[in-house]
Amino acid sequence: MTRALHALPDEKTLRGLLAELGHEARAQRFEVAPNPCVGAAVLAGGREIARGFHTVWGGPHAEVEALDAAARSGVPREDWDTLVITLEPCSSHGKTPPCTDRVLADGIRRVVVGELDPDPRHRGAGLELLRERGVEVVLLNVATPLSEVAPHFLAWTDPDRRRRPRPWVVAKWAQTRSGQLVPPEDFGEGRWISGPESLREVHRLRGRVDAIVTGVGTVLADDPRFTVRPPGDPSRPPRRVVLDSVLRTPPDARLFAPPGPGEGGGEVVILHQAGQGSARAPALEAAGARLVSVRCNEQDHVELRSVLSWLWDQGARRVLVEAGPTLLSRFLETRFVDQLRVYTGNVSGGRGDSMAEWLGRLDLRERLYREVADDSVLEAFLKSTR
Questions:
Q1: What is the pTM of this model?
Q2: Closest among 150, 269, 274 to 210, alpha carbons compared
Q3: One of 63, 88, 201, 322 is an active-site residue; which one?
């Protein structure tokens, strides 16, 4: 016998709850982008028993987190009657299964939604599926407007961007107070600017992207590995992509070394100009590199649009640029950067070009300033016109 649904709280109360969920969800915007910030709550008999939020790109969505929290609440499942969500639940497979499947599996009989999916390919589909399966749907549209809760998601689903799709690009760098990316020779072994706490954050970030993009200049200067270590997730290391138009990458670079215990290293791909450096190709392939030729520009640089198109075709949706000022500046000049994370270490001076001028003239949105031990961190979204 189907239990009767309890009466909903009044609309003012529901809108207040949706506003609270949206505000809390926004705190995770830099962790989940390009996904939307979403919050959800489970009601039993009109009383809230659990909340959940989407907190990690590629991780469980808010609906799943809320339902899992409800399962830990001690309230019998048969008493759960309403799920309140800031955004229409997804109905298609992505990094995770459709949230509509979980809603139906847990026997939720009523869903209250504060905003429709902005993507015309999915808009309304999740709600229609739920209605077809007998779930009561209450739409309080614009109760949690994406223009306030997750404007970055509107940029991600913009029709112009969907016509020429490319991954979401996060540019990360560590700098001294004056904006140099290389410290003075007497600091951090002449190499390290930020502290160990910031490095742990970077490993978490690396474990939450599909690819890391760098330039051959960084490989030659720093001989990095770009692996993932705990607290990052070594089980899903991103592809490591080197932009190297004439194949200057050394076959004995540390990129090709096997990962150590508890460490994850993704495939190494070198994007280069066709016909250039062909004599060095066999040694690089023997070292473990996959060589892919892409279009180059008039300066014989690998063309960034072609790089991003190739990454998209490979299934990459969120990529991290870890590079020196030359490649970072190219990404910024072409407006292919969607999101910034900049660590400023507790050190003055430094060597090489400064990124300070860029930070002074970029159109930064939704800035967040925070501290990690002795380092200052800036996070922001960038306006993209391409």
A1: 0.93
A2: 269
A3: 63
